[in-house]
Structure formats: structure tokens, C-alpha cells
Amino acid sequence: MKFPQKHTLKQIATILNCNYVGNDDFPVMGMNEIHVVEPGDIVFVDHPKYYDKALQSAATVVLINKEVDCPAGKALLISTDPFRDFNTLTDFFRPFQKATSSIAASAKIGEGTIVQPGTFIGNNVVVGKNCLIHPNVSIYDNCIIRDNVTIHAGTVLGADAFYYKNRPEGFDKLLSGGRVVVENNVDLGALCTIDKGVTGDTLIKEGSKIDNQVHVGHDTVIGKKCLIASQVGIAGCVIIEDEVTIWGQVGIASAITIGTKAVLLAQSGVSKSLAPHKTYFGYPAEEARRKYKELASIRQIPSIIEKLG
């Protein structure tokens, strides 16, 4: 998430009321999670296990809960609670805006687009040309829909990320300031839920087709010309490369990659990254031929025991 304008390290520290290491005028351009940070971004870290990863990332400002040596060319924000302060910045730079109408005055809708009754389109949403948005679709603030997109009834774009910190008093929610971006010629079925990024974009690339009742988690990227059948659940930060086919009721764990033109057969469970150009089945998902041979072998166990007995 980029800020509307450049800020200085001192300005950000003032917002957070925290100490800092670096020049007062050190430039700060935005804030992001570690997997999408760029120079000029703030990244937060609150566990020693991840200190080195954060300090060595592309981010040039690290919001951290310990005084450490500052890497060359970077700055530190010293916080008693980086998770809390990251939320403070999200709320400061992208606060919740109350809706005052079913289609916000700030929304932009392209020529030839049809919006059916009961649809909600939030603040700063952009919808391209020749789209068809069916009844009771909800498109939250800041989402981007390109041209020739069809969205069926009841689908929700831009709900919050499912991201919580477990504290003694209960679960503390990480605020979501990102977006959903849907490229040209995408079809979304009925009752799909596409969560926005925490700070970046959840992205569905050109030409992909998604069936009914599919969930896409925060910051996930779905490549070009993918086919995803009904009741698939995709966790956050997943990378699905181009022309992947995913059949019904597949579950995909967070932060993994599905290679180009992979095929995931129905009801498979994916817990690790999968190589391209192969067909997978089962839980944990493995190459389908191998999995079917294993199942055939298991069926033979009773007869083998009987013979041995």
C-alpha cells in the first residue's frame, strides 16, 4: 500500500509516538507485508524468529520491537507492539469510509457495463467497460474491475483478510488496507468470496474463470486462463500460475505456489508447492498416477493378510 504522498521517518514516528533510528527526513513511501515489500516501504516484525528476514528484506523501514543494529541504507521504528502500530498506520492512511449510497459517488463505471439491482459498489471502486454485474454483488472500497468481466449474484469482493494475532485477551485482527484487482475477461460465479490484500492486491488475472462458491484468500494471485470449479478454498498468499485447472472442493494451504498448467483433481488437499505440467490427487496431493497406485495397493492388503493367515 502506497501512501498518498511521501512521508518522512519523523512524521511516521510521530503518528506512532515511538522512537526511531535514522535521519529525520528518511523517505517513507508506503507499507507492506514482507512478501510484497519494496524499497521505501515499512514492514513490521514482532518475533525474533523473523528479525533477520525483515531486516534483510527489500523494505527500507523496519517496524520492530527490539533495538537492533540498523542495516546500512535503512531506518528503524522502535515499537512496543509492531502489530498494533501497523494497524495504526493502516487506519491512518486508509481508514474505513462509511457508505452513503448503494453505488458510491466516487465509483467509476465504464461504458456498456450493466449493474443489476441490489448491487453495492463502494468508495473509489473502478469498474471497466462492458461488464455484467448480477444482483446482490458487493464490491468493497478500492476494488478494481477491468473490462468484460462477469460477476454472478451474491459474490463479495474485498472482504477483510482472515489474519489474527492470538493475545491473552483474545484474537486481535490485522486491519486490511489492500485491494482486489480483477483483470479483463474474468468470470466469477455466484456466492464467491474474494478477500482483499492486507496491504497489497489480491489479483485474478486475465481470462480466468471461477465457478460458484469459491473462496480466494488475501494477497493470493491467480494467473491467466485458470479454471477453478465450485467449492474450492484457497488460503492467503497463494500463487497460482497460468492455465492451472482446479476441480471441485480442492483445499489449498497458504503461501504455496501451484505451477503452470498443473491440474488438481477433485477433493485434493494441497499442503505444499506443486510443480508445473502435472496432474495431482489426494491428501496430501501427489501425482495422480502414483496416488492411484497407492490406493490400489492398499485395497490388496486384506487379501494379502488372508493369504498369510
Automatic annotation (TrEMBL):
Residues 25-90 form the UDP-3-O-[3-hydroxymyristoyl] glucosamine N-acyltransferase non-repeat region domain. The keyword Lipid biosynthesis applies. Gene3D superfamilies: Hexapeptide repeat proteins (2.160.10.10), MurE/MurF, N-terminal domain (3.40.1390.10). This is UDP-3-O-(3-hydroxymyristoyl)glucosamine N-acyltransferase. Its EC number is 2.3.1.191. NCBIfam families: PRK00892.1. Keywords: Acyltransferase, Lipid A biosynthesis, Lipid biosynthesis, Lipid metabolism, Repeat, Transferase. GO terms for molecular function: UDP-3-O-[(3R)-3-hydroxyacyl]-glucosamine N-acyltransferase activity. PANTHER family: UDP-3-O-ACYLGLUCOSAMINE N-ACYLTRANSFERASE, UDP-3-O-ACYLGLUCOSAMINE N-ACYLTRANSFERASE 1, MITOCHONDRIAL-RELATED.
